[in-house]
Amino acid sequence: MEVVLARFEHLEEVSKLFDRYRVFYKQSSDLEAARKFLQERFQKSDSTIFVAIDREHVVGFTQLYPSFSSVSMKRIWILNDLFVKEAYREKGVAKSLMSAAEIFARETGAVRIILATQISNIPAQALYESLDYRKDEEFYHYVLQL
User: What's the mean per-residue pLDDT of the chain?
Assistant: First the structure.
């Protein structure tokens, strides 16, 4: 298994996983919309996607979006998506994807990676905490649904 920066040739396989990721978060399956969304990310280069590949098949991915911290005046990355096929879970794939994201963030001069997960997603929380991510206890985060 290897983790690489996703290329356009990975679009079809990543789209299938992205659709399953969205279904996990209670969204209706829509493979065509998932494909179009990711195709636009590739074309506009406004996200960075890493894929885990085993035997020439994509078995997991993570997607990061760039942002900035006004206080530090430095780049930050928002790790918005992480998904691994069920058969590949608890085999180090997610850790490898997270490691690639961290290396990438450091190489781009970022001061931090931020992420959010559902309160009920205990396995994800355990993964993040095992990698030294800490729950933010200094700030509340608010959402305005539009």
Answer: 96
